Amino acid sequence: MMGALKAAPIITTVVVLLVVSLLQAQGTPPPTPLMLVSLEGRRPIPTTVLSGQELIALDDVATLFQVTVREDTLAGGITVTYKGRTIVVSDDQPMASVDGRVVTLPSPAARAGRRWLVPVEFLSRALAPIYDTRIDLRRTSRLLIVGDLRVPRVVGRVDIPGPPTRATLEITPASPVTLTVDATRIVVRVDADALELTLPSGGGGLIEQIRPGDQPNTVTVVLNGRAGMARAASMDADNVTRVTIEVPSLNPPAETAAPPAPPVAPAEPAPPLLTATTRAALQTIVIDPGHGGEDVGVRGPGGVQEKRVALDVARRLRGLIENRLGIRVVLTREDDRSVSLDERAALANNSKADLFISLHANGALAPGVTGAEVFHARLDRESQDALRSADEAVSLPVLGGGSRKIDVIRWDLAQARHVDASEMFAGMLEEGLRAHVTMGPRPLQEGALRVLMGADMPAALVEMAYLTNPGQAATAKTESYQTLVTQGIYDAVRRFRSYLEEQRAR
Amino acid sequence: MNRRRYVHIAIGVLLLAVLAWGVNRGLERLVAPPATTTSGAGAAATPPAVPHITATLFYAATDGQALIPVQREVPLAEGVVPQGREILLMQLQAAPSPYLSAIPAGTTLRAFYVTERGDAFVDLSGEVSSKHPGGSFTELLTVYAIVNAVTANLPTIQRVQILIDGKEAETLAGHIDLRRPLIRDVTLVRESET
Description:
CATH superfamily of the largest domain in chain A: Zn-dependent exopeptidases
CATH class of the largest domain in chain A: Alpha Beta
Structural class of chain A: alpha+beta
Number of strands of chain A: 30
Mean pLDDT of chain A: 82
Number of helices of chain B: 5
Mean pLDDT of chain B: 84
Strand content of chain A: 25-35%
Number of domains of chain B: 2
Largest sheet of chain B: 5 strands, mixed
CATH architecture of the largest domain in chain A: 3-Layer(aba) Sandwich
Helix content of chain A: 25-40%
Oligomer: heterodimer
């Protein structure tokens, strides 16, 4: 009896050690399961982590990939066969022989009870070379992609907490995206089979979270209760699609009521505010994709339509200007809809835009005409009269005393006082475009362009290509041509901003 | 009684015969060509001479890059408005070879009139807009083929406003402002094909 009591601690210790060693031999599951993505869908693969190494059972590999597994006692390893091709995995060396070629693995095969475990790298290094369909192991994103699937990488981040809060999603390689914006969230749907996501753990500013969407090819940006209506735009450059998101505050500070108490000196230095003296020379640009809806514009051979080319380039241009210059960009139409010419100019005026760019594609009576052209407004006699009238602003009394000067220029001739600046910007556009694309027979023209006449800011119209030319009709819808046009216009915008800043400094 | 009836019938028949003869003669006169044209040797081939003027009309060059002024014979009309109408009717017709018409085929002239200020109004049918191929430059050529044709041939007219289907129009195809009268534009004109 006493002997049994003395032996008890030893037995207990032995049992504990046995259990621990057994657990170690079994390993622990990884924090995030490895996800198999194929045409059939997604499903987790059972793997286990043992001594810091992620392993997969060859039994599971046999089931998933229809391979035959057998232990080769003579050779001292495990043989995996697929359609007459053989892999021999060593049980004492971190390597495998794949159809006679040796590949290295992070560790040798390990036995766990009656099962053989191999490092998950076995799939990409040993099985992939002999397998019929593509096997792509992406360790960091925990994806095992089987088959020719489009699984772009998506990296999300909050750039500026703001408000306005700015965030970016970078999609590599570039892929078409559909953006859906509502009051509480933005859904980014990528034209892909699945996404390899690298998203921030938390949000920032008015963005609560950037998380995987409900579908395998979507990402959802969740806004918090203080967020106003967000804007999102996408732009392709260097084989990367950048989705930029700007979330304004629901109640911008400018609209809040003035505090009733007299101002008190702040204890801490106030954050820099944009005041009249520090307002950027170029704060808002309105880009006007011509035509839309039933108004197709020019139809080129092969079905290319002016309204589509204009919208495509407008979106690209918005992304580039917003990303690189930090200038707010408003489009006169976000999709394929009909917008009247007056509405386009009115949107620019109401947005207090500093620049207006109308995008079109040209047509000619002869198919041989090609190239890009730039138009700016021409003043007719009536517009010149309007301009003279505008110089004679009327002074009106205002509530509370004092007076305020009111311009008397007709709204539909508002362009009259910007013709010089518009001509200068049009010249910059012509030079910017010339550096990237072929120019047309009349590269810089003036004319009574209806959409420009009501714009109360420097304005120009770009005809990006002649769609009546079969060659240009084919290239105008390509990403490469649209990127060149976008770059040319972007260069002109940058030059015009520098010009405005120089003017202000004088 | 019977004799009376026969007399009445005879008079009626006689009257009908006279009437039929008269109608027949009248129709013969209407249908038959005048005696002078039938007897005159070779005179039937040439209609009476209508005076013409030589007007400058504007068509697109074969390369589509400019308007070319072309001299064409247009019937002479009394007064600015009738003459303007004749010029525009010719301008709306098909272009002489090798040129191209800048105005969509099927466009017709609904009205042409001149205000006291000397502004001309050219009222065109809807085809000028609905059949327009689009593009800023093509639209410029269309608009100024009309404006230049009127102002180049009628010196008293300086400005032209285009109406479509009797109404003021914003543009033909979304580009050129038509809300106000336009003056001649010679920058679009090239003197010859080459």
